[in-house]
Amino acid sequence: MVVTVSDESKDIARANRSAGYKLRNGISMPVVGYGTWALPDSPECAKAVCDAIRAGYRLIDGAAFYKNERSVGKGIRAAISQGVARSELFVTSKVWVENLGYQNTMDSFFKSLNDLELDYLDLYLIHWPASPNKHPNWLDLNCATWRAMVELYEEGYVRAIGVSNFLPHHLEKLLSFRVTPMVNQLEVHPGYSQRALVTLCQEHGIVVEGWSPFGRGAVLQDATINAIADAHECTAAQVCLAFCRQLKVIPLPKSSASNRMVSNLDFLDITLSTAEMGQLLALDDIKLGYSREHPDR
What we know:
Layout: H1 7-18, E1 21-22, E2 28-29, E3 33-35, H2 43-55, E4 59-61, H3 69-81, E5 90-95, H4 102-116, E6 123-126, H5 138-154, E7 161-164, H6 168-174, E8 183-187, H7 195-203, E9 207-211, H8 223-232, H9 236-246, E10 249-251, H10 258-264, H11 274-282
Parallel strand pairs: 3-4, 4-5, 5-6, 6-7, 7-8, 8-9, 9-10
Antiparallel strand pairs: 1-2
Helix pairs in contact: 2-3, 3-4, 4-5, 8-9
């Protein structure tokens, strides 16, 4: 696998990081990440991750549940071997909901670290919370999991810790810990902005990442989004990513096609008007592209 990192991609990477979001511990996260969900554990996955880094992505979002971390790690290491510094990258993994609890979380973390063949992670998340309808001891389970996360953070195995798909009642108890969540990764896109939850997180100093920024492809066909794209002479995908950025949410687009990886990053040059943002936020009324994946259902 040969990686050629162009001057242009280096410029994009610098812009990606310099305009990033500061976590409460002072660490900066890039403004956009590359999602690895649904990439098969294969040479194609490793190539896609490597291509993404070549294009200028520096945040790589993974998870144990995706069952592809060996290939994701190969892609990361290929880029490193060709001159991209490990310190430039922001690598994420997540503990799956079936592995919650103190010891299970510890075991899951070190398995991910081993599969990725890295010395440390930049961000580790609880993928989904234990919830009242599925776990009678949901609160204790979330707290035990968070204790493990704090320990991993304080011992230096991971640079930042957070959660994913946590609603206010899942977050409340964790906010009383000495180390509180630094990130909450949520479904965010035109049609499902979760504005109230995003605002609540930001008020507590929690940076929000947005998974499925294209609503699993459903929003890319919407007439409103395409009209805005036409006005800016850009793609519908770029409009969705610009929407997230203007909500101060880090979008996590995924594509295995290198040309779309590059095209998606052009959203950094797009500024949507207040009226256009209003049109996109109004799509929440019909829950356009909503996955219907709810942590309490």
